[in-house]
Design a protein that fits this description.
single chain, 327 residues, mainly alpha, Ribonucleotide Reductase, subunit A, 65% helix
Length: 327
């Protein structure tokens, strides 16, 4: 188990003083928030079947590659129980739910839950997806779990969520653009709304880190460095299909995503650069020796990753994804 300084819990208690304001600022009430039913055909509507036919007609205009990334994004959203469990295990989050950090995790989870619900129902109605295969992959991803290498450290957790929420925002917004280009305005709107949620959540987690830097800069810098040395592991890293004992699906899935420019190595570098700027890493002073070395490593990392990325070539994947049905 990761050894953490006792100060972690003290910092989390201190930051909890501002959580009431942050809960109101970054999360929305369920009664006024959008819900999946707002964007899907209503079975009580006389035009219900005609609306489904419209969805299926537009779905045929989208490429198989675009369906692959949409399904992958959906499965990633559906693996929400995994994400809630590791956030709830962080130091400073009371498991009995009596503190504001636990309230944040529950309400963040509730907002995120809408994403998978909406996308899953859209896939079902589209007629382009083998839902049983999608459901098998989803069950595998949840039951297999994955180690994001944060342990119970809230500092590392918040670095991960700051990065990952930005990554999902990019992926959903790019799928929205590609759907719109194919003429699918409904799917474009759906993915755009989800991307907006992810952007709002990313802003919240970045604010958590910013506040931690203000009160415990040395430990926060070391946590940031540690996560970047380990690399941010994407939730889809352990995707697998029916019949697979281990995950072999992420590589071809990632190749398709990069080919379509939905999420790329360059995006990873750009997110890192944005976090360095957001938290003013390069100008941070009054650090101890270890934190100064961590700061310098982080500041130099984007250029190093850029040089590596220039040597990477994206292969043409020949994988047949069981998720996708023929047109």
């Amino acid at each position: 188990m990761m050894n953490l300084p006792e100060s972690r819990k003290e910092v989390m208690r201190f930051l909890e003083n501002s959580m009431t304001e942050l809960l109101t600022k970054f999360l929305k009430p369920a009664d006024t928030n959008w819900q999946p039913a707002d964007f899907l055909p209503d079975a009580q509507n006389p035009d219900f079947f005609d609306e489904i036919k419209d969805i299926q007609s537009l779905s045929k205009e989208m490429s198989d590659e675009l369906w692959v990334v949409l399904v992958g994004d959906t499965i990633t959203e559906e693996a929400l129980p995994t994400y809630e469990s590791w956030l709830m295990s962080a130091v400073g989050v009371e498991q009995d739910g009596r503190n504001s950090w636990a309230e944040w995790v529950r309400r963040w989870t509730a907002e995120e839950n809408r994403h998978g619900d909406l996308l899953n129902k859209y896939l079902y109605l589209s007629g382009r997806v083998n839902m049983r295969e999608v459901e098998i992959s989803t069950q595998h991803l949840i039951s297999d779990g994955f180690d994001i290498q944060t342990g119970i450290d809230p500092f590392r957790n918040f670095v991960y969520t700051s990065f990952q929420e930005d990554a999902t925002k990019i992926s959903h917004s790019r799928v929205a653009r590609l759907a719109k280009e194919s003429g699918n305005k409904l799917l474009a709107k759906i993915c755009g709304l989800i991307a907006a949620d992810e952007a709002r959540h990313a802003t919240a987690y970045k604010e958590f880190v910013r506040q931690i830097f203000a009160v415990d800069p040395n430990e926060m810098m070391l946590a940031f460095e540690d996560m970047m040395r380990k690399k941010i592991i994407m939730p889809a890293a352990f995707l697998r299909e029916s019949g697979e004992k281990i995950s072999t699906l992420f590589a071809p899935f990632s190749d398709v995503a990069q080919k379509l420019n939905v999420y790329t190595t360059q995006d990873y570098i750009n997110i890192l650069n944005s976090l360095i700027k957001e938290w003013d890493i390069e100008n941070m002073s009054d650090l101890n020796e270890s934190a100064e070395k961590a700061r310098d490593y982080i500041a130099q990392l984007p250029a190093r990753l850029q040089r590596i990325s220039e040597r990477i070539k994206i292969p043409d994947t020949t994988h047949h994804f069981k998720w996708i049905l023929a047109k």
